Amino acid sequence: MKVGRRKAILFSSAAALRLLLFFAFPSLPAILTGRAEISTPVTSFKRLQEGLFLYTHNVSPYDGGVFYQVRTTISGKTSINAESPDQAPLFLPLFALIPPSVFDAVTALLYILVDLICADSLIRIAESGVARSSRLFSSPRKDNKWDEVAVGAGVFSNCAILLAITNAVSQKPAKSMLALALAAYFSLYPALLLPPMILLCHDQSTTSSHTLPNTAFKLSSFFFGSLAWFLTISYLLTGQSWEFLRSTYGVHLLLPDLTPNVGLWWYFFIEMFDSFREFFLGVFWLHLLGYVGGLCFRLRKQPLFVVTTLIGIFAIFQPYPSIADASLYFSLIPLYSHVFPLMRYTFFAIATVLYATLLGPAFYYLWIYAGSGNANFFYAITLVWSLGLSIIVGECLFAVLRDEWEVERPEMKGKDVRRI
Asked: Coil, strand, or helix at residue 92?
């Protein structure tokens, strides 16, 4: 069977399954969008609907501290009260033009399309072979064949990140920076992927005359120029107002909404005294930023793995994580299936994640609905979830470093490693 035919059958089967679930269980999307593990204040579809309601009733969607998303898809104008010049002219999002009778079906088709784009990007990344052999490093281990593609939730920022990686390994640096800028526009943290993405684009470049500093300058300029272009569009669409910056990116930096999620920030800052809030916000963000430079320096030979590892770290330590962020990391891990035999605590890591996955909804129910628990119940299981993800990230990092070490010192292959 040809690869193109296999891909067509796989994609059509996946789309058919999603449509079957949608029509067989019409209440399932509403149930899932209300789950704290899936929905966060910055990605909630219900909050998007609330923002659209305010938007179409001549009220700024950023009023009230409910809507934290950027203006992305746009179509036509809407009339605004002349007494509110700071809100005019506004543009209706594309969602607002969908007739209510087919709104759910069109939304489902849109998210299915995004998932298929993610799947296609993962296949193209795997077919490039960059995970196993880059310009500076080539692993001698054989690939373990994976016939299935793990695709995460249909999140636009995740799709943009995958498109950025796909274009980088396909020797299209400009498109890669454009997609990464779009991901950073949707959500703030993908901007931290810029250094390893520059390294990846440089390593994949066929032009030997370009040095790394020149490549870094050109791609950084293109990235920030593209991001500025997206922000300027939002500025124009919001009636020439920068109000959206505080309500979109400021919510990541300042954490004003402490709605429970699977992350580590919300409970910590609930218990935090206000006088120490700014200090610990800086500490948390510096902690997240500190991984970028160290991983880029130590794993310079494998920038794609640096991107993969940072995505896993962001799924643990970003302000508003969800299982969509973890699913993006899990979908990239099979690219390094050739180092799976080098992992040591695979069973413990998988068991920890499954344990948290099963007990998380139960503890949330005991706290919110049954009233027989408190916030410690849910936060404790989110700590277990973060522990499981941390073990997986650490195991993958150890396996790749061990693989590099055995290439440099073949006589140590198969021998135990001890820290002296």
From this structure: strand
